Amino acid sequence: MPVFRADEHYYSNLFLREKPLQDNWITTLSPGLSFGILNEDSSLTSNFTWNHLFYTNQSELDIDEQLFSLGYHHQPTERLQWGIDGSYNNRSSLNTEGTINGLLFTQVMSK
């Protein structure tokens, strides 16, 4: 099943500076796919989402993120239940680096 989500966030001090440089609007567009199989005693679900983050007035920070999850749950009897979940996320975070010209703000990907 296709999934689509859109968010918009406002940050008055994105870089946590004593005197903020500017306000930021961050728009996130998230197309994705979800699959699932359900029967009497088990379920298998998966989800893949691709996030694209747009930074208003700072397009050099625009970035893509990938999120994947998979889960299996089994309940053969009323008292016994087990499951396994896993996920792989390639997410971004803002990084600040001091240079001779001042501060450099970049995106860093973490898995």
Characterization of this structure:
With about 110 residues, this protein is an all-beta fold. About 0% of the residues lie in helices and about 70% in strands. It contains no helices and six strands. A six-stranded antiparallel sheet has the order 1-2-3-4-5-6, with no helix packed on it. The two termini are about 25 Å apart. The mean pLDDT is about 90.
A few lines on this structure:
0% of the residues lie in helices and 70% in strands. It has 111 residues and is mainly β.
Shape category: elongated
Beta fraction: over 45%
Terminal CA distance = 25 Å
Taking strands numbered 1, 2, ... along the chain, how are they ordered across the largest sheet?
1-2-3-4-5-6
On the 0 to 100 scale, the average pLDDT is 88
Uncertain spans, ≥5 residues at pLDDT below 50? none
Order of helices and strands: EEEEEE
The total of beta strands comes to 6
Continuous helix count: 0
Give descriptors for this structure.
111 residues, mainly beta, 6-stranded antiparallel β-sheet
Write the layout of secondary structure elements.
Layout: E1 2-11, E2 24-38, E3 42-55, E4 63-74, E5 82-99, E6 102-110
Antiparallel strand pairs: 1-2, 2-3, 3-4, 4-5, 5-6
